[in-house]
Batch of 2 targets.
Target 1
Amino acid sequence: DAKTTQPPSMDCAEGRAANLPCNHSTISGNEYVYWYRQIHSQGPQYIIHGLKNNETNEMASLIITEDRKSSTLILPHATLRDTAVYYCIVRVVSSGGYQKVTFGTGTKLQVIP
Amino acid sequence: NAGVTQTPKFQVLKTGQSMTLQCAQDMNHNSMYWYRQDPGMGLRLIYYSASEGTTDKGEVPNGYNVSRLNKREFSLRLESAAPSQTSVYFCASVRDRGLGELFFGEGSRLTVL
């Protein structure tokens, strides 16, 4: 699986868009980009994923660069409840069937009132 | 629909004691995982099971054993607990080797004295 790099922490004003970057310069063609978040010490929660096109759901938007070496998770109107650690991971879809999924240390997002 | 259920939620052990963390999912998922999370750190993969009857080591397998009892259940055993194994343990499952979001349990908080 490709390695990802994220800033350790970020602040965002409540009501503003939070843009969380992720670098995955060694990503290969069959790897998807996934984002999860972990609020306090709860189990991580899935947010969104994508391959090469931009994606949007009710929680967030995912922008993947054309060369796929980096991506940005966008929370359009951050609220205090979005304060969490955000993880960017890449996952291979292999014919061998194994899905070893590893997490890095993520970005701690603090939403400020 | 319970999702991923972990037991126990809290446990205190003395050094050298053994115990088993239980994990069960009711989503008919094929792949299951055990992670540990130490304070202020990200998730580290201990063991995973791509499908019933198979298990493989992750990043930090030393001191642990696992059993994929059936498709629903994946247990993690500490044979001789050490203080370094004090952590929060998360179980997760995913539908198949292909795409799909990881579903996490709420965690098991283990303290080894």
Target 2
Amino acid sequence: GAVVSQHPSWVICKSGTSVKIECRSLDFQATTMFWYRQFPKQSLMLMATSNEGSKATYEQGVEKDKFLINHASLTLSTLTVTSAHPEDSSFYICSARPGLAFETQYFGPGTRLLVL
Amino acid sequence: KQEVTQIPAALSVPEGENLVLNCSFTDSAIYNLQWFRQDPGKGLTSLLLIQSSQREQTSGRLNASLDKSSGRSTLYIAASQPGDSATYLCAVDTGNQFYFGTGTSLTVIP
């Protein structure tokens, strides 16, 4: 089946540093990748949608200069949290869609970020 | 904008009971609806995927139904077990993005 991986699974960093999270589709090519954020006891909220080779589309309220998304290839998307602050501490989950709009998304295992 | 609601927010049942989780959505223009399980601090595990043209899907003790016209889906869990304790999320796929429900936190008491 379709597998999506994320790295790292856990990251602890100091306030003001930048953190990069990778999302890879292991056995399929993902034309579209999605990044979600989940705060404790809340549901997943879409942050941005990225298509390979083009700029990401950010949801309202998500700062594009703070959350840099790069979808450089059909199997890799990265989310960089720049100048992280404690309020950025969250669970970040990516998903990937193989191709057509009616195909489902496959979710990564998530990355837990703790900013001290 | 699509809004997805799940009722109840939390549920506690004794082991062996059958139970139903509810999911409602406001816009019936969906490609599919998916039920996920999430354990504390973990990612999502896909349980059942129902295409918009389907009425239900079954996997083991789980059965999910979809009534697209009324904007409702139910997840039925038969003979619940303590290992079923988790948060259950439903999500609708509009083709552009997933919209997640608020989740139902299930506790099955041994």
